[in-house]
Design goal:
Number of helices: 3
Radius of gyration: 20 Å
Helix content: 25-40%
Structural class: alpha+beta
Strand content: 25-35%
Strand order of the largest sheet: 4-10-9-7
Distance between the termini: 57 Å
Number of strands: 10
Shape: elongated
Order of helices and strands: EEHEHEEEHEEEE
Length: 146
C-alpha cells in the first residue's frame, strides 16, 4: 500500500514522503490517526507541484538549521547531577540535555534529541536532528555535584 505522509512518523519517513507499508498498518493506524493518506495518481501530481513550490523556501530553512548547528557545536555543555563516585543517583536523558541547552540560550525540542539513558559521569555525545538534512553530534559532559 502506497501512502503519502502528512506528518513525520518516526522510523517510517518525513512529511510529504511516499512510503510503502503493509495494508493493515496503513488502513488501521496511519490513515485513521491522520498521519497519511492514499497515494493516488492525482494525489502524487498535487504533491509534486507542492514540493516544487516549497523547494526555494526549504533552502532558507536548511541554511538556518546549518547556522544553528554551528552554534550548537561551539557550545560546551556540562550537566551536573548527584553522584556517588562515578555512578549517578538517577539518570541523564534527552530532557536534561534540552534543559542544559535552554540555559545556554538554544531552544531545541526534546523529541529531536537522541542520547539514550546515561547513568555514569563522563563525556558523551547526543544526536540532535534540526532538519531532515541537518543532524548534529552534540558532545556533553556529566559531572558530579559538589
Amino acid at each position: 500500500m502506497e501512502l503519502i505522509l502528512k506528518k513525520d512518523v518516526q522510523n517510517l519517513g518525513f512529511k510529504d514522503d511516499i512510503v510503502t507499508v503493509k495494508n493493515g498498518y496503513g488502513r488501521n493506524f496511519l490513515i485513521p490517526q491522520g498521519f497519511a493518506h492514499m497515494a493516488t495518481p492525482s494525489a502524487k501530481k498535487v504533491l509534486a507541484e507542492n514540493l516544487k513550490q516549497k523547494a526555494h523556501k526549504e533552502a532558507k530553512i536548511v541554511d538556518d538549521a546549518k547556522k544553528l548547528a554551528e552554534a550548537l557545536k561551539a557550545l560546551e555543555i556540562k550537566i551536573s547531577a548527584k553522584a556517588g563516585g562515578e555512578k549517578l543517583f538517577g539518570s541523564i536523558t534527552n530532557i536534561d540535555i534540552a534543559d542544559a541547552l535552554e540555559k545556554q540560550g538554544q531552544t531545541i525540542d526534546r523529541k529531536f534529541i537522541t542520547s539514550g539513558i546515561v547513568k555514569r559521569t563522563g563525556k558523551y555525545s547526543a544526536t540532535v536532528r534540526l532538519h531532515r538534512e541537518v543532524i548534529v553530534d552534540l558532545p556533553y559532559e556529566i559531572v558530579a555535584e559538589k
